[in-house]
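Reopening this ticket.

The earlier resolution said the output was attached, but the attachment link was broken on my side. Pasting everything inline this time so it's all in one place.
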Amino acid sequence: MTLQGKVALVTGASRGIGRAIALGLAAEGARIAINYVSRPDAAAEVRQTLQAMGSDGLPVQADVAVATDVARMVAQVLEHYGHIDVLVHNAALHRGRRVQRLPEADWDTVLNSCLKGAYHCCQHVVPHMSARRSGRIITISSFVGLIGWPGDTAYGAAKAGLIGFTRSLAKEVAAYGITANVVVPGYIPTDMTAALTPKNVDDMLGLIPLGRAGTPEEVAEVVTFLATRAAYVTGAVYVVDGGLSL
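Inline output:
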């Protein structure tokens, strides 16, 4: 259990990929701060699952797009656990529409949750990690940020920006013993992709060389590797998409 005694803050941890990441890190011994926005019931279920694994979880409500929420969340985690060793920024909202029909409010919602959310979380967690001269930061991007997708200008911009943000961050924090890396999932069936039509899904699967969708657990495995064993890896982009972005 390579994260025994460590604390991981996972944003958007109440469902989907974030939930799988929380469970994967807990399996390595980490205690988990379970960030959620509006589903306390889902966060409570994750906590119960963690407890059944013999781990510990702290549900913390915060909208990562809101600076004061993030400040409160980080303070709450530090008060409860005393330190944060791993930050996984997974939270993001999706609003899809062709650019000429995309409301500015939807653009702002996506960019604020994903990209500004990463900025807010790192702004509050990095000083703590720097003082301890240790830490792992992992951001969750998307294949849309690599190759684009029709109707996803906002989401693609946010996820591509997250790659640039994290690679620049890696150079800023390396001297403090902190690594920063990006994981790029491909098509992973979650609540976010549930609105896709069967034809959309078939079209997507037809573009994946491995011929199938991925699972949240397969993304979580790569995150766990970066959080536990990748001491000499920073500024890297790990693509977990079955070849979709090739």
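Reporter confirms the inline version is readable. Residues 64 and 117 are 5 Å apart (CA to CA). The beta strands are 7-10, 31-36, 57-61, 86-89, 135-140, 178-185, 237-240.
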